[in-house]
Design a protein that fits this description.
Blueprint lengths: L4 E12 L2 E13 L2 E6 L10 E11 L2 E7 L14 H14 L4 H16 L3 E7 L4 H14 L2 E5 L1 E2 L12 H14 L6 E7 L7 H14 L2 E6 L3 H10 L6 H7 L7 E5 L5 H10 L2 E4 L1 H6 L7 H7 L2 E4 L11 H18 L9 H14 L15 E5 L11 H10 L5 E7 L2 E2 L2
Helix pairs in contact: 2-3, 4-5, 11-12, 11-13
Bound molecules: guanine and fe (iii) ion.
C-alpha cells in the first residue's frame, strides 16, 4: 500500500545539471507514493501525516545504477589484472556458466540482492546470465525487495564458451518466456540484453530488435568500451559504419536503450546516440580497472546526451553509487589533465544530476523531490565521518562520495514504500 508521510532532515536534490537545492532540517512530503515537495514548515493540509524524524541526516532522492551484472557480484574485487576480452574469457564466463545450476543461482543471488537492498541504490538496470531459470530466480528475489529494477536475460549465440553459447532460436524463445514471466511483477521489468556485438550474431540482433519494437521493451548492452573490442566488431560486421551503427541498423537504439561505457564514440556514433535519445551508462571504476580508458562525459553532457552512472559490477568492484560518483569526478580530472585540457572536469552537481535525475528518467518521473515525482529517498547517516569541523550540506554530500564506506544508510524509500 502506498503511504502518506513526511521525512524531516537535510534535504538535497538537483535543481538543474549545475545547481543543487538544499533545505536544512526541512520536510519532504510523500502522498500516495508521490512527492508533494519540500517545505520549511509542515503545511496545514499535511499535518496529520506521520513524520520520520531524521534531523541532521542527509536526505537525497535514491541513486539509480544504470548498469551492473548480478552474477558477477561473487567475484567482485578480484581478477583486475586483465583487459576486457581476456577478463571475460578468464574470469567472467567461467563464473556465469555456474548459473546453469539453480542451487548456485539461489545462493549467489541471495548475497547480491541483500547487498543491493541495503545500498544507496533505489533503482537499477541489471544483467543476469543467459539462463532462463536463474534469471527468474533473480527476478523473484528482486521483486521482494521492492527496489525497482530492469532485469535482462542475457543473449549470446557466438564467440562464447560452449557453456554460454545459445542456439539463436532458443535465445529468442527463452527471452519471450522471460517477457511473459515478468508480467506478474510490480517492481521488476524485463529488458532485452544482447551482451555485446561480438557475442550476438546479426540474426540474433535483428530478431531482438523486432521483439523490442513489437512489445515495446527496453534494451541494454555494451558499446565502445575497449580498443580490441571495437576492432573486433568492425571485423565481425564489415557492412557497418561503426559499432553503434550495428545496434542502430537492428533497431536497438532508442529512448529506452542503455549503452554501457561509450568510452570511444566517434562523431557518427555521437550523432546516432543523440538522434535516438539513447542513454549512456558511464562506468568510471570499471573503465579504470580494465584499463579501458576515460570517456569524455563532460562533452557528452554539454551535447545534451542522457548520461547516467553505472557501477558495472564486477568490472567495477563496488555496488556503491556514492563511490561510483566520486570515481567519475576523479576520472574526469585525469582526462582533463592528461588527455584534453579543453574538456573541464565534472562537477559534483553534474554527477548528482546524472545519478538521480538522468538515471531516474529511464524509469519515468523519478529522481527529484519536486512535486509530482515518484517518491524515492535515501537517508544517509554520515556521523561516523569524524571531524572537529562543521560542514555545510553540500560538503557533506561530497564527503559521502569520497568516504562512502563510512556512511550508513539509515533508511530507504522507493515509490513511497519504506524498504529499510
Ligand atoms: N562487454 C561484454 N560483456 C561485458 C561484461 O560482462 N562486463 C563489461 N565491463 N563489459 C562487457
Ligand atoms: Fe557491463
Amino acid at each position: 500500500m502506498k503511504r502518506c508521510f513526511i521525512i524531516k532532515g537535510n534535504i538535497c536534490y538537483s535543481e538543474s545539471k549545475s545547481k543543487l537545492k538544499i533545505f536544512e532540517n526541512s520536510y519532504v512530503v510523500c502522498e500516495d507514493g508521490i512527492s508533494r515537495g519540500v517545505f520549511r514548515e509542515i503545511p496545514e493540509r499535511y499535518k496529520d501525516f506521520e513524520i520520520y524524524d531524521y534531523t541532521d541526516k542527509l536526505v537525497v532522492p535514491g541513486f539509480v545504477d544504470l548498469h551492473l551484472h548480478a552474477p558477477q557480484y561473487t567475484f567482485r574485487a578480484v581478477g583486475m589484472d586483465l583487459e576486457l576480452l581476456d577478463w571475460l574469457n578468464t574470469y567472467t564466463f567461467k563464473e556465469e556458466s555456474k548459473y546453469s545450476e539453480e542451487k548456485y543461482a539461489e545462493k549467489a543471488y541471495d548475497i547480491f540482492v541483500e547487498d543491493l537492498k541495503n545500498s544507496e541504490t533505489t533503482r537499477a538496470c541489471v544483467f543476469a546470465t543467459i539462463h532462463k531459470d536463474a534469471t527468474k530466480i533473480l527476478m523473484d528475489k528482486l521483486e521482494k525487495t521492492k527496489l525497482k529494477t530492469f532485469v535482462g536475460k542475457v543473449n549470446m549465440d557466438r564467440n562464447s564458451p560452449d557453456s554460454l553459447t545459445e542456439n539463436t532460436d532458443s535465445s529468442i524463445n527463452d527471452t519471450l518466456d522471460i517477457l511473459e514471466y515478468s508480467k506478474t511483477f510490480d517492481n521488476v521489468f524485463p529488458i532485452l540484453t544482447p551482451r555485446f556485438v561480438p557475442s550476438c550474431s546479426d540474426e540474433l540482433l535483428e530478431r531482438l530488435g523486432e521483439t523490442g519494437e513489437k512489445f515495446s521493451i527496453a534494451v541494454q548492452s555494451h558499446l565502445d568500451e575497449n580498443f580490441d573490442e571495437i576492432k573486433w566488431v568492425s571485423e565481425l560486421c564489415p557492412w557497418s559504419n561503426s559499432y553503434a551503427d550495428v545496434y542502430d541498423k537492428f533497431n536497438l537504439l532508442n529512448d529506452k536503450s542503455i549503452m554501457a561505457h561509450c568510452v570511444y564514440l566517434n562523431d557518427d556514433e555521437i550523432s546516432l546516440i543523440l538522434k535516438s535519445n539513447s542513454y549512456v551508462a558511464h562506468c568510471p571504476e570499471s573503465n579504470a580497472n580494465l584499463a579501458s580508458g576515460i570517456a569524455p562525459i563532460k562533452k557528452y553532457l554539454d551535447l545534451g546526451m542522457n548520461v547516467g552512472i553505472g557501477t558495472d559490477i564486477a568490472a567495477g568492484s563496488s555496488n556503491s553509487m556514492l563511490k561510483a560518483m566520486g570515481e567519475a569526478i576523479k576520472m574526469s580530472k585525469l582526462r582533463w589533465r592528461l588527455v584534453d585540457n579543453d574538456i573541464a572536469p565534472l562537477e559534483l552537481e553534474e554527477i548528482f544530476y546524472m545519478a538521480t535525475i538522468t538515471g531516474g528518467s529511464f524509469f519515468g518521473k523519478v529522481g527529484s523531490f519536486d512535486s509530482g515525482y515518484e517518491f524515492d529517498a535515501v537517508v544517509i547517516d554520515d556521523e561516523d565521518i569524524k571531524s572537529t569541523m562543521k560542514f555545510e550540506v553540500r560538503d557533506r554530500i561530497e564527503r559521502a562520495m569520497y568516504l562512502h564506506d563510512k556512511c550508513k544508510i539509515a533508511s530507504k524509500f522507493v515509490s513511497g514504500e519504506k524498504i529499510i
